[in-house]
């Protein structure tokens, strides 16, 4: 710790700066370790929550008198998905217009201008459709679910459910999880189509024949390509829903609105990290099974 | 009335209940019996552990030590499904009402009935109307909880608590923050429910008027310790007696609390605390 030894020549503010820098680094190191530990703990608890939710769903499917609450599911699906549609359409159509435009000059040099259709389609169905939809939904659905459940904790609603012998996992978590999964998949289909439409607009402007564009698009998308994209979407949706429910229910009653705010922002941040990591894992898996050919 | 009931086994039986949150001991060696059909009022200063005691009784918190029996069954070691069976037999009114804010008042009351019985919608509707009429809220069935006043929320919470005709009702500060008339109405409701439906009630409150109106027996809690459990009559006598006659500090303390006096052992404790040293230390 020589920077803390008093030396009169050194300007005071420089010493202060060095000191706070070292201090900051130490904090950062400590934070990394504690975040790592926390992340592991959280993944463990989240797996338990997922296991419980799966149990509830399975029992709901196989035991007729166990109610799942279809009414809740519909309401949640509307709330999770509908508000996000305009923004997904906007973002995906713009990306669909930009991406081919940026690829065009390079491809044109090789006389392959019409291949922008192929690139656009692959990008849409395999990557950007599911990815952008899930990221947008982490803001729309994830944040609102976390805020809602967190508020329910602070207003004693969760405890009230327990005291009425109602399981919050069955009553609250399951419909929200199913809704985020289903809606991410449905909205991904929309996102895919809209992105192709955006590319088509660009293609026409660039003087590429409409028929060729759609022919190439169809060739680029195999059934497996489409389905793997939707599988990704389902998993991303599950991650968003799970993180949102977990963080929302982890708010402690005495944390009040502060805890709810934390849960909300953390949901968005953690969801995006989880989505990107899962995306990487998927890519590796699909590659090793040769699903990209 | 208490003479008669005390021969039966208690419907709630708490023995040597102890609980700490971290280093803070919140409840110490609590022993409490509540008999069928009586109204037990739990009194005590703010932060003395009343709500914590109530949370133990409904199985929300597991004690560090001691036993809690409801309907003669130990609940502190029960598994969640077993506990849920017991939970269907009691109702609780939370301090804030704790209605589900995303549902209408009517749906809130219908919730336990829908989830725990196989009744058809029309029957449930009728039951909800009956429960809401009991608390004078029948016209407000379609409102959202956010549209209700604090007192209405509490009454709606009460309607929900009695939805499944429970045998025990727990109330956390049912009349705190209400105007005197609404407060008196709630008191009357508690008495009516207990007498007419033979419900056993445990009421946490620090409104003395209300406590003396409704109680069969009372229990005084201070800093996590039970000072006295006795009939309302005994507490009334204690309140009316003069300080000089009370030999022990404990009775003086209870008397001060019951009367809401500013002078007495409760406040003297505070004077003796290390407030000045604490202040000076910081300087
Ligand atoms: N979950 C918890 N974690 C930590 N401390 C707690 C918790 N719940 C209660 N406490 C502490 O236990 C003590 C008793 O709290 P409790 O809510 O039982 O008081 P109370 O008698 O109901 O007070 P009031 O009349 O103000 O409602 C308080 O000092 C409180 O800080
Ligand atoms: Mg309390």
The largest sheet of chain B, given as strand count, sense and whether it forms a barrel, is: 6 strands, mixed
Q: Approximately how much helix is present in the residues of chain B? A: 40-55%
The amount of beta strand of chain B, in percent, is: 15-25%
By secondary-structure content and strand pairing, the structural class of chain A works out as mainly alpha
Rg calc of chain B: 20 Å
The total strand number of chain B stands at 10
Query: Termini of chain B, distance in Å?
Result: 59 Å
Shape of chain B: globular
Bound molecules: adenosine-5'-triphosphate, magnesium ion
- What is the oligomeric state here? heterodimer
The helix tally of chain B amounts to 12
Low-confidence stretches of chain B: 1-5
Order of helices and strands of chain A: HHHHHHHHH
In words, what does this structure look like?
Helices cover 83% and strands 0% of the residues of chain A. With 293 residues, chain A is mainly α. Chain A has 2 domains: 67 residues; 221 residues, no CATH class. In chain A, helix 6 runs antiparallel to helix 7. Chain B has 283 residues and is of the alpha/beta class. In chain B, the strands form 2 sheets. A 6-stranded mixed sheet of chain B has the order 6-7-8-3-9-10, sandwiched between helices. In chain B, strands 2-1-4-5 form a 4-stranded antiparallel sheet, with helices on one face. The chains are: A mainly alpha (293), B alpha/beta (283). Chains A and B meet through helix 4 and helix 5 of A and helix 3 and helix 4 of B. The complex binds adenosine-5'-triphosphate and magnesium ion. The site of magnesium ion (MG) has 4 residues of chain B, from helix 2.
């Amino acid at each position: 710790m020589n920077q803390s030894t008093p030396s009169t020549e050194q300007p005071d503010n420089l010493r202060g700066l060095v000191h706070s820098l070292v201090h900051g680094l130490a904090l950062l190191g400590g934070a990394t370790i504690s975040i790592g530990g926390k992340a592991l703990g959280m993944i463990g608890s989240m797996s338990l929550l997922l296991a419980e939710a799966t149990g509830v769903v399975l029992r709901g499917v196989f035991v007729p008198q166990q109610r799942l609450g279809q009414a809740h599911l519909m309401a949640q699906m509307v709330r999770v998905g509908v508000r996000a549609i305009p923004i997904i359409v906007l973002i995906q159509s713009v990306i669909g217009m930009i991406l081919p435009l940026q690829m065009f000059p390079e491809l044109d040099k090789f006389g392959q201008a019409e291949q922008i259709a192929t690139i656009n389609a692959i990008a849409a169905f395999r990557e950007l459709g599911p990815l952008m939809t899930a990221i947008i939904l982490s803001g729309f659905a994830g944040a609102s679910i976390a805020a809602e459940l967190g508020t329910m904790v602070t207003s004693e609603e969760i405890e009230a459910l327990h005291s009425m012998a109602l399981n919050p996992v069955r009553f609250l978590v399951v419909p929200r999880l199913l809704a985020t999964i289903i809606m991410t998949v449905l909205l991904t289909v929309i996102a895919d189509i809209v992105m192709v439409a955006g590319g088509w607009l660009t293609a026409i402007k660039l003087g590429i024949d409409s028929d060729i564009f759609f022919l190439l698009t169809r060739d680029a998308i195999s059934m497996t390509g489409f389905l793997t994209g939707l599988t990704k979407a389902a998993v991303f949706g599950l991650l968003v829903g799970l993180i949102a429910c977990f963080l929302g229910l982890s708010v402690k009653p005495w944390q009040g609105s502060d805890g709810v705010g934390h849960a909300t922002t953390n949901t968005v941040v953690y969801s995006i990290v989880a989505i990107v990591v899962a995306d990487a894992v998927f890519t590796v898996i699909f590659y090793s099974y040769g699903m990209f050919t | 009335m208490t003479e008669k009931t005390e021969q039966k086994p208690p419907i709630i039986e708490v023995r040597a209940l102890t609980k700490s949150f971290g280093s803070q001991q919140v409840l110490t060696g609590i022993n409490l019996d509540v008999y069928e059909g009586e109204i037990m009022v739990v009194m005590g200063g703010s932060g003395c552990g009343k709500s914590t005691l109530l949370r133990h009784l409904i199985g929300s918190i597991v004690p560090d030590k001691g036993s809690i029996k409801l309907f003669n069954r130990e609940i502190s070691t029960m598994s969640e499904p077993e506990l849920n069976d017991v939970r269907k037999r009691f109702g609780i009114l939370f301090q804030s009402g704790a209605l589900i804010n995303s549902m209408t008042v009517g749906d809130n009351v219908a919730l336990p009935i829908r989830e725990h019985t196989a009744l058809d919608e029309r029957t449930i509707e009728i039951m909800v109307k009956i429960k809401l009429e009991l608390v004078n809220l029948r016209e407000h069935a379609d409102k959202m909880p956010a549209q209700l006043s604090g007192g209405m929320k509490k009454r709606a919470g009460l309607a929900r608590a009695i939805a499944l005709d429970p045998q025990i009702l727990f109330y956390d500060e049912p009349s705190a923050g209400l105007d005197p008339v609404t407060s008196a109405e709630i008191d009357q409701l508690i008495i009516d429910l207990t007498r007419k439906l033979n419900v056993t009630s445990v009421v946490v409150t620090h409104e003395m008027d209300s406590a003396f109106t409704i109680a069969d027996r009372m229990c005084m809690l201070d800093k996590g310790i039970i000072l006295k459990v006795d009939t309302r009559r005994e507490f009334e006598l204690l309140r009316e007696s003069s300080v000089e006659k009370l030999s022990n500090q404990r009775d003086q303390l209870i008397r001060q609390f019951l009367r809401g006096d500013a002078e007495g052992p409760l406040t003297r404790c505070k004077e003796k605390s290390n407030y000045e040293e604490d202040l000076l230390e910081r300087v």
